[in-house]
Amino acid sequence: MTGIHYGHGVMDLRMLSRSLPVILAPILLTKPVIHPLSEEASAAQLYEQALAHIERLDSPNTRRLGACAAMGCWAAMIDLNDEVKTFVTELEPALVLARKAAAQQEVNWTSKGQNGEHLIHLGRLARTISGMFVISARQALAEGNHSLAIDDLSAAVRVTRQAAATPSFMAKLIETAALRPAFDTLAEHLPAFSKPQLESLRQQLERLPKSPSLEEVFLGEYEVGKRNAAAPDPQTGAVDPTTVKMFSELKGFYQALATATSLRKKSFAKKVQEQVEKHPDNPFAQALANLFPPQHEMATAELIRWAMLETAIRIRLEGEQAASQSKDPVFEQPFFFKKTDQGFELGSKFQSNGKSIQVRFGP
Predict the structure, then answer these.
(1) DSSP letters along 124-154, please?
(2) What are residue 347's DSSP bridge partners?
(3) Distance CA 267, CA 43 (A)
(4) Distance (Å, whole) CA 109 – CA 124
(5) With 50 as the cut, is the pLDDT of residue 284 above it?
(6) Residue 29: pLDDT above 80?
(7) What's the confidence (pLDDT) of residue 156?
(8) CA–CA separation, 323 vs 193, rounded Å?
């Protein structure tokens, strides 16, 4: 298990959705309808078929694939035994479908008859598919098939990026939660990869879709809120013009904070308060004042962890001097570097939930 201080515990998207203002994140719990696949099936259809296969399996492990707790994720921590090996074999049809989906560059999660706001389902899909790729990769590593392991770990990261293709706070949370088992597994096994394997991993990660920037997330969240503000009431069919007006007044609010996302925590929180004071009579501004700083902290922490993974790969390829050439994206200085018995640690002064971020690369 890797020494990663996530500081977020279990990512409960249902709980989070209840904490957001209703206007910002209405959630549809209805699953998309599964249709037979054609030869030209889209990535979204392939992922849905993979998930449907997983959920039809008669195994308690099915529900555990996307499960994470404070100490780690099931897929990254479970001891590999004959039962798990059998389970991975049973997952093979779903893995074939999901690998085809991951090979596609784009995913359109919106299908005919849906409005695209099925984020709870998308979160479950991303966590489950990512967990499946991770448990498959770990089994492949145990069997000495490092090439397959690297392919599946890269695919696990890809599905998290694909799930966050439309930037918003909820999409960023989905990406973060689904990435965790893949990140943990990569960190644990990185020192054991050969240089050719690491080069293959580096190239695959470089070809991944980019994770939405914090600025893109904030601007995307405004678009989500604007659409929701203008949505008809499900019971009366009426649109509340006051709600539409009040939310439209916050465009500058979102834009100002989007351009401030590179600031450190205290400076960003100050910027939020400055913007709130410009909208003293807007209740949405007051609600956002409580929402934005923790979202900024979480997304910044994930940005740092990913930069640490990229640095760790360079250290293994180029030597320890790469640590001194690394760059913390917040403090713009090298990460702290410390050798361990079977690897090394990287650290940042940035604190998430009161703890400095540290990642151990190695068992």
Answers:
(1) HHHHHHHHHHHHHHHHHHHTT-HHHHHHHHH
(2) 336, 358
(3) 41
(4) 14
(5) yes
(6) no
(7) 97
(8) 18
What does the block give as tokens for 167?
């930037």
Q: Which two three-digit tokens encode residue 44?
A: 């979204």
Nearest to 62 by CA among 107, 94, 34: 94
Distance from C-alpha of 185 to C-alpha of 138, rounded to nearest angstrom? 8
User: pLDDT digits over 203-223, tens only?
Assistant: 999 999 999 999 999 999 899
Work out the end-to-end distance of the chain between its first and last CA atoms, rounded to an integer number of angstroms: 6
Bigger pLDDT: 53 vs 231: 53
Rounded to 5 degrees, what are φ and ψ at 352? -120, 120
* 156-174 confidence digits (pLDDT tens): 999 999 998 888 888 999 9
Taking the C-alpha atoms of residue 329 and residue 291, their distance in angstroms, rounded to an integer, is 23
Cβ(45)–Cβ(37) under 8 Å? yes
Name which of 132, 172, 159, 164 is nearest 52 in CA terms. Answer: 132
Quote the pLDDT of residue 343: 94
Give pLDDT, residue 321.
95
More confident residue, 17 or 281: 281
Residue of 87, 43, 89 whose CA lies nearest to 65: 87
User: Quick check: 282 and 249 in contact, CB under 8 A?
Assistant: yes
Query: Is the backbone of residue 9 left (phi > 0), alpha (psi -120 to 50) or beta?
Result: left
Confidence of residue 40 (pLDDT cuts 50, 70, 90): low
The residues facing 344 across adjacent strands are 339, 361
Query: Does the pLDDT at position 39 exceed 70?
Result: no
For residue 344, what is the enclosing H or E element? strand 343-352
Amino acid at 248: S
Work out the average pLDDT over 278-293: 89
Query: Would you place residue 272 in the very low, low, confident or very high pLDDT band (cuts 50, 70, 90)?
Result: very high
Fill in the DSSP letter of residue 165: S
Phi, psi of 349 (to 5 degrees): -75, -15
Token digits of residue 190: 């990185």
- 110 burial (CB, 10 Å; 0-12 / 13-18 / 19+) is middle
Q: Which amino acid is at 340?
A: T
Is 311:345 a contact under the CB 8 Å cutoff? no
332 within 8 A of 315, measured Cβ to Cβ = no
Kindly state the tokens that stand for 49: 């078929």
